[in-house]
């Protein structure tokens, strides 16, 4: 069965420091992978996605993620964190078929940014 | 262009009641999916509708039902509400039905059951 694990429930980084949020997935074939961000009281905003090709993908707000098939991972990175990046981040895996758009989400990582 | 819009934004119900949540997708999007997000957890898939037909259903009881209208808007109905149904209900729309279609989320409906 498909599953997504985000090992870190909470992460605190200083403003200007680099960030890496971990995501591991379980899926039988090449998955479609997504990172979403959720600010308090709001819906989810798509940061970036991976379908195929170059394993390093660029997203909005300066985020990037790297797909590593051997490690079943899709970690999210940002070189320099801004205070406005404080939010909850979700990794999700989509079914690799044309028949369903169902997403399986991890339980999320809450990012706190210290001034 | 307007994003995904959901109504109402907040709702308070009591156990045993019924509720209807509404979603309008982004213009041109034909697929609508519903997710339940309990506090402190990631969203869980409830339904997907594409071209007015159910294309997927998550592990939710029959008390949950949905439909999609000719204009691609959608309603989620929950009957016989339980305390455990308290959650943020998110609607997402996409151009097509496949897993490679990025889904765009609304801000959700916060449902509280007393």
Search tags:
heterodimer, A: mainly beta, six-stranded mixed sheet, four-stranded antiparallel sheet, 0% helix, 51% strand, B: 114 residues, mainly beta, seven-stranded mixed sheet, 50% strand
How would you characterize the overall build of this protein?
The complex is a heterodimer of chains A (115) and B (114). In chain A, strands 2, 5, 6, 10, 11 and 12 form a 6-stranded mixed sheet that branches. A 4-stranded antiparallel sheet of chain A has the order 3-9-8-7, with no helix packed on it. Chain A has strands spanning 3-5, 10-14, 19-21, 24-26, 32-38, 44-50, 56-58, 64-68, 73-78, 87-94, 103-105, 109-114. The mean pLDDT of chain A is 92. By secondary structure, chain A is mainly β. Helix content of chain A is 0%, strand content 51%. Chain B has no helices and 11 strands. Chain B has strands spanning 5-7, 10-13, 19-24, 31-37, 44-50, 53-57, 64-68, 74-78, 87-94, 104-105, 109-113. In chain B, the strands form 2 sheets. In chain B, strands 2, 4, 5, 6, 9, 10 and 11 form a 7-stranded mixed sheet that branches. A 4-stranded antiparallel sheet of chain B has the order 1-3-8-7, with no helix packed on it. Chain B starts with a strand and ends with a strand. The A-B interface holds A 4, 32, 34, 36, 41-46, 49, 51, 90, 92, 94-108 and B 4, 31, 33, 35, 40-45, 48, 50, 55-56, 58, 90, 92, 94, 96-108.
